[in-house]
């Protein structure tokens, strides 16, 4: 799920809102905060939603087996920058345990740091340019590994801060790199009907 246009409401026209400024406000059902502006999201499509769940399952299994960290499903908000004016919700994510040791009832709102792995899955209504802008924002925030999945083409493009993107087809194996080295998934399995 990527983003739609900013919510057009006088309530949200104030520049540079922070996460704390949104408490108690009437917000859209699905939203993100991008550079101080509330962005309404559209629901994901069924097929892309299923692909998102598969990514979460693979991350969860690898995180549970290795004990290296925490996997998060779609719609969990991550604060990307210290100014708290950008909160994004990847379709699946992973955070190393040493960066986020206390996951429990005290972590009631958003994850206060960017993830180590962020997954975005294109929906039919998503624009590639918007998805690539979101990938760039993740990398700028320090996300070490971003996967952009295209269910229609059955590809996963891997982005890292220090290398050109690599697009993997169904014959390839997707791995968690140095973030989650135990994770190895055939791309064909991600897009299996």
Automatic annotation (TrEMBL):
InterPro entries: Nuclease_put_TT1808 (IPR012296), Restrct_endonuc-II-like (IPR011335), Uma2 (IPR008538)
Transmembrane segments: none
CDD domains for this protein: DUF820-like (cd06260)
Residues of the Putative restriction endonuclease domain: 29-187
SUPFAM superfamilies reported in the protein's UniProt record: Restriction endonuclease-like
PANTHER family named among the record's database cross-references: SLL0198 PROTEIN, SLL0198 PROTEIN-RELATED
Protein name: Putative restriction endonuclease domain-containing protein
């Amino acid at each position: 799920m990527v983003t739609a246009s900013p919510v057009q409401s006088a309530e949200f026209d104030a520049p540079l809102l922070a996460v704390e400024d949104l408490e108690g406000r009437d917000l859209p059902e699905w939203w993100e905060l991008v550079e101080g502006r509330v962005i309404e999201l559209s629901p994901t499509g069924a097929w892309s939603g299923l692909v998102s769940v598969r990514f979460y399952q693979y991350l969860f299994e690898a995180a549970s087996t290795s004990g290296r960290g925490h996997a998060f499903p779609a719609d969990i908000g991550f604060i990307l920058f210290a100014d708290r004016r950008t909160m994004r919700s990847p379709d699946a994510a992973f955070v190393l345990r040493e960066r986020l040791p206390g996951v429990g009832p005290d972590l009631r709102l958003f994850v206060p740091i960017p993830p180590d792995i962020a997954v975005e899955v294109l929906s039919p209504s998503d624009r590639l340019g918007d998805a690539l802008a979101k990938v760039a924002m993740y990398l700028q925030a320090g996300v070490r590994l971003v996967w952009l999945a295209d269910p229609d083409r059955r590809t996963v493009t891997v982005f890292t801060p220090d290398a050109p993107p690599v697009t993997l087809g169904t014959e390839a194996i997707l791995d968690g790199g140095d973030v989650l080295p135990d994770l190895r998934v055939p791309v064909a399995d991600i897009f299996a009907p």
